[in-house]
Amino acid sequence: MKSSWRDGERVREVELKPLSPGRWRVRVDAAEFELVSETMPDGRLRLSGESGVIVAEVTPEGSRRFVRLGVLDFVLEREGAAGGSGRRRAAGGAHDGGMEAPMPGVVTKVMVVVGDEVTKGQPLVALEAMKMEHLIRAPRGGRVQRVSASPGQMVQAGTALVELEAATG
Predict the structure, then answer these.
(1) pLDDT digits (tens, 9 = 90+) for 53-106
(2) Are 132 and 71 in contact (CB under 8 A)?
């Protein structure tokens, strides 16, 4: 089974081939390896391969997958998913000048105020969702025009958190 996933600014080509129950040949871009997958009682996956064992937690939400591998968090979005806008979106729900909550959660930190100059990739808001902290980062440099988030606020997916001035040029 083949699929394409957006990982930030990159598109990853993924292919999974079942070898036997719980055993897979995995290709991600040009890297190929074998994994043994075991579903744990809490729903997480125990993945064993040449490089050792890691626990993975995958939370699906529409065309997105929130993935935790050990202590690393990823937000992947299926490329070409039905209902997609066709335009590229950065992780954290960035589009045009606004940053949105990627899933329902609670705002734990707001790291900017109106008027702040920010750089691409700078953390703006921390959101706790699915027992993980998600950093909402600036998709580009610019000046903060509006901050709609506050610590302790419960938000739904798609809720605007921070808005940057419109890009010029």
Answers:
(1) 989 888 877 778 888 887 777 888 888 754 343 333 333 444 445 678 877 888
(2) no
Q: Is 135:123 a contact under the CB 8 Å cutoff?
A: yes
3-state DSSP of the chain: CEEEEEECCEEEEEEEEEEECCEEEEEECCEEEEEEEEECCCCCEEEEECCEEEEEEEEEECCEEEEEECCEEEEEEECCCCCCCCCCCECCCEECCEEECCCCEEEEEECCCCCCEECCCCEEEEEEECCEEEEEECCCCEEEEEECCCCCCEECCCCEEEEECCCCC
